[in-house]
Design brief:
The chain has helices at about 35-40, 45-50, 75-85, 95-105, 110-115, 140-150, 175-190, 215-225, 235-245, 285-295, 340-345, 355-365, 400-410, 425-430, 435-460, 530-535, and strands at about 20-25, 55-60, 125-130, 155-165, 195-200, 230-235, 255-260, 275-280, 310-315, 325-330, 350-355, 380-385, 415-420, 460-465, 500-505, 515, 550. The chain folds into two domains: about 20-90 and about 335-550, Alkaline Phosphatase, subunit A (3-Layer(aba) Sandwich); about 95-330, BPG-independent phosphoglycerate mutase, domain B (2,3-Bisphosphoglycerate-independent phosphoglycerate mutase, substrate-binding domain), CATH 3.40.1450. It is globular, with a radius of gyration of 24 Å. The longest helix has 25 residues, at about 435-460. The strands form three sheets. It has an eight-stranded mixed beta sheet, sandwiched between helices. α10 links the parallel β8 and β9 (about 310-315). By secondary structure, the chain is α/β, with parallel strands linked by helices. The two termini are about 35 Å apart. Bound molecules: 3-phosphoglyceric acid (3PG) and cobalt (II) ion. Cobalt (II) ion binds near residues 25, 77, 426, 430 and 470. Cobalt (II) ion binds near residues 77 and 470.
Length: about 550
């Protein structure tokens, strides 16, 4: 029968502390002026790369290697950390929703049948990110859902959009709104009362994560549910175009707006008897809104009015909290993660990051599961992030503080695994500010040094990797790799992640001298890391895990 007990590794010892360092948004790309990692001084990461070739390698961090629908899909932190922690490739939310829409199964499940009960007398509200980035949501999925729901009885539909500019180019919001408006007008021709009701930029409205700043969710609540916002427009296209025209405006941070009718009344507040679907498949930035929509007891902000609604998520966002309780598509069942195995095999685990990435090395790492497996053996430390700023103004973020916590955890002797996420390359890369991203990369490198020095002191082992690319390429390129220009002749800044591979480096005084990377694995990816880490702890990985990256020469 099934057992949690991991077999001993035939050659590798137990008892060496292992530091697992995830540099967020740190891919490998050609060296040019848009590669911030190259431009920055990063002596520590450089020395790993230029050290022993059998201790540094690249792995895939995007596309099918991490369970995304296609190899045109860039990596992201959710799928990246899922793969790193779970050691297997699971079909991810994006793909599961695609399948459920294609087969029509999405309309047969409990979730859809539940919201459908509101179609007769209520409005169907769809809230989520309007983007084809494929990280949190996809426009084509929204289009299919609109069509499917209207064919199945939804008579009145309101869409509450969040503009992107983070997983896609800034300014692309306008085109997405045009596409959506076109679909909605086609629905109206069929007699369905369908329109956009509210909007705002994802980083300023609704899509906060890990409870960094509830004001973000409140601004969304006011616009979406209460129908109140500082800006009122007759159409979403006018709203987005006008608000983008303000100085320093961008898609990520557009202020909240509501669409009003000729008499100035909001066209789509959420009322008793309505149905609400949050259309994002990705969890982290929907959990907070899901709580506000679902929980009777809720004290994070004053909701003012709490309509009696039927609410479903596109997916269930948190399996442990069962949140939301209704959903259209079942999330991937990511069980038996490496974190759970290792804790059950006695590995005392410390995990740390700052707020904006804290859930990445805990919740995502553990298969979208919140909380400890065994609180007597684990400690998760969250360092508060700066809130209310864009990270280009403080690009060092909390890298130093995270590294110091990791160092202290290693030196304490209380932990066998010390795991961190260093957010700089990603969070600053998303701002599109190249100079600040260079500073960010340097700060992350300095943090790695602090951790590697501590590994050295305790005779431990390190594994340094990344979850996906970002900072290594800050410009949109054509197929030949040449930077693309915008209308005014400037470069098109790439705020998003990339398709680039990421490094994996191993070393430290505790590493058995015979350990080296294998060269017989066809296309290794992030999912191969978990078995590798288990080996470094002296265990063999479960048989169904993706194979380890390392082998041990006899000497
Ligand atoms: C975000 O949510 O910030 C971006 O859409 C993706 O970034 P992440 O996958 O690195 O969190
Ligand atoms: Co990112």
């Amino acid at each position: 029968g099934f057992s949690w007990t991991l077999p001993d590794h035939p050659k590798l010892p137990k008892g060496k502390p292992v530091a697992v360092v995830v540099l967020d948004g740190w891919g490998e790309a050609n060296a040019d002026q848009y590669n911030c990692i190259h431009v920055a001084q990063t002596p520590v990461m450089d020395s790993l790369k230029n050290g022993a070739p059998e201790k540094w390698r690249l792995v895939k961090a995007h596309g099918t290697a991490v369970g995304l629908p296609s190899d045109d899909d860039m990596g992201n932190s959710e799928v990246g950390h899922n793969a790193l922690g779970a050691g297997r490739i699971f079909a991810q939310g994006a793909k599961l929703v695609d399948r459920a829409l294609a087969s029509g199964k999405i309309y047969e499940g409990d979730g859809f049948n539940y919201i459908k009960e509101s179609f007769e007398n209520g409005t169907l509200h769809l809230i989520g990110l309007l983007s084809d980035g494929g990280v949190h949501s996809r426009l084509d999925q929204l289009q299919l859902l609109l069509k499917g729901a209207s064919e199945r009885g939804a008579k009145r539909i309101r869409v509450h959009i969040l503009t992107d500019g983070r997983d896609v180019l800034d300014g692309s919001s306008v085109g997405f709104v045009e596409t959506l408006e076109n679909d909605l007008s086609q629905l109206r021709e069929k007699g369905i009362d369908a329109q956009i009701a509210s909007g705002g930029g994802r980083m300023y409205v609704t899509m906060d994560r890990y409870e960094n700043d509830w004001d973000v969710v409140k601004r969304g609540w006011d616009a979406q549910v209460l129908g109140e916002a500082p800006h009122k427009f007759k159409s979403a296209l006018e709203a987005v175009k006008t608000l983008r025209g303000e100085p320093n405006a961008n898609d990520q941070y557009l202020p909240p707006f509501v669409i009003v009718d000729d008499s100035g009344k909001a066209v789509g507040p959420v009322l008793d008897g309505d149905a609400v679907v949050t259309i994002n498949f990705r969890a982290d930035r929907m959990v907070m809104l899901a709580k506000a929509l679902e929980y009777a007891d809720f004290d994070k902000f004053d909701r003012v009015r709490v309509p009696k609604i039927r609410y479903a998520g596109m997916l269930q966002y948190d399996g442990e909290l069962k949140l939301p309780s209704r959903y259209l598509v079942s999330p991937p069942e990511i069980e038996r993660t490496s974190g759970e195995y290792l804790v059950k095999n006695g590995i005392r685990t410390f995990a740390c990051s700052e707020t904006v990435k804290f859930g990445h090395v805990t919740f995502f790492w553990n298969g979208n599961r919140s909380g400890y497996f065994d609180e007597t053996k684990e400690e998760y430390v969250e360092i508060p992030s700066d809130s209310g700023i864009t990270f280009n103004v403080a690009p060092k973020m909390k890298a130093l503080e995270i590294a110091e916590k990791a160092r202290d955890a290693l030196l304490s002797g209380k932990f066998d695994q010390v795991r961190v996420n260093l957010p700089n390359g990603d969070m600053v890369g998303h701002t599109g500010d190249i100079e600040a991203t260079v500073v960010a990369c340097k700060a992350a490198d300095e943090a790695v040094k602090i951790i590697l020095d501590a590994v050295e002191q305790v005779g431990g082992i390190y594994l340094v990797t990344a979850d996906h690319g970002n900072a290594e390429d800050m410009v949109k390129r054509n197929k030949a790799g040449k930077p693309l220009l915008d209308k005014s002749g400037g470069i098109q800044i790439l705020t998003s992640h990339t398709l680039q591979p990421v490094p994996v480096a191993i070393g430290g005084p505790g590493l058995h001298p015979g350990v080296k990377f294998r060269n017989d694995i066809q296309t290794p990816g992030l999912a191969n890391v978990a078995a590798t880490v288990m080996n470094l702890h002296g265990f063999e990985a479960p048989a169904d895990y993706e194979t380890t990256l390392i082998e041990v020469a006899d000497n």
